[in-house]
Amino acid sequence: MSQLQDKYKSKIVAKLKEEMKLSNDLAVPKIAKVVINVGAGQALQDSKFLEGVAANLALITGQKPIMTKAKKSISNFKIRAGMIIGAKVTLRGKRMYDFVDKLVNVALPRVRDFRGLALSGFDGNGNYTMGIKELNVFPEINPAEVIKSHGMDISVITTAKDDNKGEILLRYLGFPLQEKKNA
Length: 183
Prior knowledge:
Layout: H1 3-19, E1 31-39, H2 47-61, E2 66-69, E3 84-91, H3 93-107, E4 128-132, E5 152-158, H4 163-172
Antiparallel strand pairs: 1-3, 1-5, 2-3, 4-5
């Protein structure tokens, strides 16, 4: 069991249960899955770029990514339906907790000019999405081996019913969210 998962089960569940006034441990919000997505539109010009993206995602997550295809044709971008235009990984269980632990404690502190994660990343259902512009913040990536730098979208899907409960959960898990501005 990872450190974050152990911390969640032993300490955070009790705190959340008390703060949200819940009577059942199973009603406490938790992270259901983490989805890491890379849109690789540059792969249309450079076929090796997509291989590098897949290799980098596999290094960061410890899981082989699946290639995503275009759903419909877009003539302005020279994209046809069915073309491979990205890669994504869905993490659950131990790998998910390991990735979240690494993201919060190692990667985010290494982001240049980092002032916390914006609260606008919540979607209304307690899920949080953020973007990272450079993958060099992850320790597994060797900047000398990266041919072309790219970013990624990270979505943390929770079982929380609203943004407030999702925010409380992520704060207890160590996410460096910005403070709310009082109007």
